Automatic annotation (TrEMBL), chain B:
This is Sugar ABC transporter permease. Residues 83-273 form the ABC transmembrane type-1 domain. Gene3D superfamilies: MetI-like. Belongs to the binding-protein-dependent transport system permease family. Its main location: membrane. It comes from the Bacteria. Pfam families: BPD_transp_1. InterPro entries: MetI-like, MetI-like_sf. It is found in: Cell membrane. It is a multi-pass membrane protein.
Length: 294, 289
């Protein structure tokens, strides 16, 4: 053991930081979920009370519904669009590098900048979208006050940010498929559509699974988008926009923990949310895997 | 191939391929337009007055009010102060991530020691967990040690991300030959010499990818600074930017000038390093699957 001191020394800076800022906090938040604690007074053990309250809390379930709707509205078009774009990009010879960079650039811009931009463009009164609709005689659409349209705008925003990222990953997968497979399919008389569904998709399954899982984990964590879009000020009780239609679970977690200083409840929300993520990842995993058998 | 080219179906196929390639280009260009439109429209808004944009139909061309809008931004928020804070945080995070992660990744990639599998496995498990699980205790910890409102509260938690180690380890395993390290060992080079003189120079592409990744993440971070930076003197750019957007009678031209000013540095960095960055990103993602 002693003869390995150099290796342990080499990994120790990371592990010390990791234990202090990740390992210990994750378990501590589980401990907090069973306490009542406002950050100042003493902690009081309350058992499953927080979770009981959570189970009966309509705002929590509203936030879960909001999160799931936004997740579906962003993930489905993102992954489908990314697969189509990657296939197109794979088929062309020229300007490949340009397309890759131009389509990836939304992913490196900041969420705050993008959310402000979408807020301006979809603004109910003066936004560009309504102004253009106005020129063809359509009356203004309440993008940022209708509960469904709010989610649609957030979904569009996330789709715009993440399609390029997923496209790059699919493209790498497509490039790894040996050309001989396609030549063999062509010899057997398979057309482009059949080749796509019977060769490309099955070979790409592990990569599609990877993107589905990453998108599930990322997509369910939407927080900054509604927070920036609807943050009038910290004292605003109506967090998440009109009718709290943009109140995602993480936004509710933020509200409970840092605005209401209810640390125990905040911890319960984030752990319940974590269970939801696991359930959805497993379901997605099953769906994509089952497809491989049929 | 030459034989096929002489037959009629092949010439037919070649004739067909041209319009097919053209459709692909048309769709890709459409996608590029959607992808860059927000940047263009941000500039359009930032160079006009808000009332010009509010007109129906709105003004769709660049205007001449950019300097005025920029001045307005500088009057409203402490743009350069917050930018300096962001630069400090992003640079400190990047340098420390590179050092801490590469050192650990080198030990994991090239040496066997008791507990190696267990320690590395823990990292993999924690990479799957949503970061938000740790946020609340991190904040409590920061208030216990008196770091709330300070910039160092942003740097240290950012270093506890395992992605860099995971990613560099794979790169070192394949990219640094064992023979080279053995030869160095015979010449009397110890662990840290092998790390500094052999491994580090050989993994430069991986390090530059990780550098940009860490820098961009630190630059764009919003949630954690929002929670922990309570001191108005130590605010980062993203927080100031969000602050611009608050209020009912938003001066959108001014806000978009701010968005533009905050986005340009990052887009320039990305444009310069894009090729290496994208290649690096795919390498990690595809291997990670």
């Amino acid at each position: 053991m002693l003869s390995y001191w150099r290796q342990y020394l080499a990994i120790s800076p990371f592990y010390l930081i990791f234990i202090a800022f990740s390992f210990f906090p994750v378990f501590y938040s589980l401990y907090l979920a069973f306490q009542r604690y406002d950050g100042l007074g003493t902690k009081q053990f309350v058992g499953l009370q927080q979770f009981e309250f959570l189970w009966n809390d309509p705002v929590f379930w509203l936030s879960i519904r909001n999160t799931l709707v936004i997740w579906v509205l962003s993930t489905v078009p993102t992954l489908f669009g990314a697969l189509v774009l990657a296939t197109l990009l794979h088929s062309v010879r020229r300007f490949k590098g340009f397309y890759r960079i131009a389509l990836y650039v939304p992913n490196v811009t900041s969420i705050v900048a993008v959310a402000i931009f979408f807020g301006a463009v979809f603004s109910n009164n003066f936004g560009l979208v309504n102004a253009i609709l106005g020129t063809v005689g359509i009356s203004p659409v309440p993008w940022l006050s209708n509960p469904w349209l709010i989610k649609l705008v957030i979904g569009l925003l996330m789709t715009w940010m993440w399609t390029g990222y997923n496209m790059i990953i699919y493209l790498a997968g497509l490039q790894a498929i040996p050309q001989s497979v396609y030549e063999a399919a062509k010899m057997d008389g398979a057309g482009p559509v059949r080749t796509f569904f019977q060769i490309t998709i099955p070979i790409m399954r592990p990569i599609i699974l990877f993107t589905v899982i990453v998108s599930t984990i990322n997509g369910l964590q939407s927080f900054s988008e509604p927070q920036v879009l609807f943050a009038s000020n910290a004292a605003n009780a109506n967090l998440g926009g009109p009718g709290q239609a943009g109140l995602t679970t993480l936004l509710y977690f933020y509200q409970s923990s840092f605005l209401d200083n209810d640390y125990g409840y905040g911890a319960a929300i984030v752990w319940a949310f974590f269970v939801l993520i696991i359930v959805l990842v497993v379901i997605n995993w099953r769906i994509v895997q089952r497809g491989s058998k049929s | 191939m030459t034989a096929a080219a002489t037959t009629r179906p092949a010439t037919g196929a070649r004739w067909l391929r041209r319009p097919k390639g053209l459709t692909a280009h048309i769709f890709l260009i459409l996608a590029v337009l959607i992808s860059v439109f927000p940047f263009v429209w941000t500039i359009v808004m930032a160079t006009n007055t808000t009332s010009d944009i509010y007109k129906s139909p709105p003004k769709l061309t660049f205007g001449s009010h950019l300097l005025e809008n920029i001045r307005h931004v500088l009057d409203t928020i402490d743009f350069f102060g917050s930018m300096l804070n962001t630069v400090i945080v992003a640079c400190a995070t990047t340098v420390l991530v590179l050092f801490v992660d590469s050192l650990a990744a080198f030990a994991f990639a090239k040496f066997d020691f008791p507990g190696r599998k267990m320690l590395f496995g823990t990292l993999l498990v924690f990479m799957m967990l949503p970061l938000q699980l740790a946020v609340l205790p991190q904040f409590i910890l920061m208030s216990e040690i008196g770091w709330v409102g300070m910039l160092k509260a942003l740097v240290w938690p950012a270093l506890s991300n395992a992605f860099g180690i995971f990613w560099l380890r794979q790169y070192i395993e394949n990219g640094v030959p064992d023979e080279l390290l053995d030869a160095a060992r015979i010449d009397g080079a110890g662990f840290f010499r092998q790390y500094w003189n052999i491994a580090l120079p050989m993994i430069r592409p991986a390090l530059s990818f990780l550098a940009i990744y860490a820098f961009v993440n630190a630059w764009n971070d919003y949630v954690w600074p929002l929670i922990v930076l309570t001191n108005p003197d130590h605010v980062t750019l993203q927080l100031e930017l969000a602050q611009l957007n608050v209020g009912h009678n938003t001066d959108y031209s001014m806000v978009m000038a701010g968005v533009l000013m905050a986005s340009i540095p990052l887009v320039v960095v990305f444009a310069v390093f894009a090729r290496g960055f994208i290649a690096g990103a795919t390498e990690g993602a595809v291997q990670g699957s």
